[in-house]
Every structure is written in structure tokens, then in C-alpha cells.
Amino acid sequence: MSYRIFDDVFVTGTLVWYVHVCRRETWLMSRSITPYHQHPRLELGRAIDSLHSDRVPITLEGMKIDSFRVEDQTVIEVKTSSRHLESAMAQLNYYLYRLREVGVNARGQVYIPRKGQRIQVTLDEERARRDIEAVKEVVMGELPPPRRIRYCRKCAYRDFCWPLE
Ligand code: SF4
Question: Across-strand partners of 74?
Fold first, then answer.
């Protein structure tokens, strides 16, 4: 399966994550329209990531995982909270799918350090294929999808999507 959508745009775990949170974010990210870098939520995410991620993570084209535990072949996705747990699980499922393609039969775990929570994820290939197609469909759209108001209040794109507020 090809993960390249345009010359410089790939299906990534981050885009899979965003497609479950807000499809408009997926589209904006794919155009390299990035949110305010010092938004507090982004800073918190980077801080937690730097504390709990490997220095040398596994990478494949268009994907970079946080951590890989060799003993039991577990991919660990670190998140700041459980707010978008379904999205995190879909992102991790995408990584498991990519790894399976290259012969690594890994299991997955979403880790939320602030809660000491670990949620196990096993590969669902059909779901991964659906998510990959959803990302491609959004990214190939000429215009950004409508706003998903439910998540706007705390979103780093808020000033972009709601410029007159
Ligand atoms: S501000 Fe709202 S519509 Fe815009 S990207 Fe964020 S969640 Fe989506």
C-alpha cells in the first residue's frame, strides 16, 4: 500500500490521530499550516514526550513512534491525557499495521504518565485500512472540512479557525 498522498505528504500516525479528533486539523496539518508553536497544550505534549520517549525511536517513511519495548515487542504511544483515547488507539493501530507490513508483529500500549494508565491495543487491520483511506480522502480535498466545534475551545488552531472571536 502507498502512504504517499502528494510528493511531500504521507499518511502519518499524527494525521490518523487528527482524523479522529477533527478532520479540519488533518487537512491543515497536511498543508503545513501549523498552530501556534508555544500553545500551552503543545508545550505540555512536547515536555511529556521528551520525558517518556526513546532517544532513538523506530522510524518508517511517514511514521515515528515514541517508544519500543524490545522484550515484548511493544510499541508505546505516550499521551498527555485520556481525552482523545480513541484517537490515540487508532494512531497506535496504524503503527502496528505499518510494522506488520515489514514483518514486525508488535503489540501496542497507550501510556498516559500523568495518570499511570496503560491501555493495551491489538492490531485491527480493517480499522487501519479505513483510517488510512479517511486520511487520504481528507488530504486530497481542495478545501478544509467544516469546523468540529466540540473540540475547538482547547484547540491550538482556534485562532486560525475562529479569527473574529
Ligand atoms: S479549532 Fe476547531 S475546527 Fe479548527 S482545527 Fe481545532 S477543533 Fe478543528
Answer: 69, 107
**Count of CB atoms within 10 A of residue 16's CB?**
24
Q: Is 29 in the pocket of ligand 1 (CB under 6 A)?
A: no
Q: Whose CA is nearest to atom 7 of ligand 1?
A: 152
Any atom of ligand 1 within 6 Å of the Cβ of 41: no
pTM of the model: 0.88
How far apart, in whole angstroms, are the C-alpha atoms of residue 32 and residue 77? 23
Q: Which residue in the block uniquely carries the three cell numbers 487528527?
A: 18
Which pLDDT does position 55 carry in this prediction? 58
Q: What is the dihedral of CA 59, 64, 65, 69, to 10 degrees?
A: 20
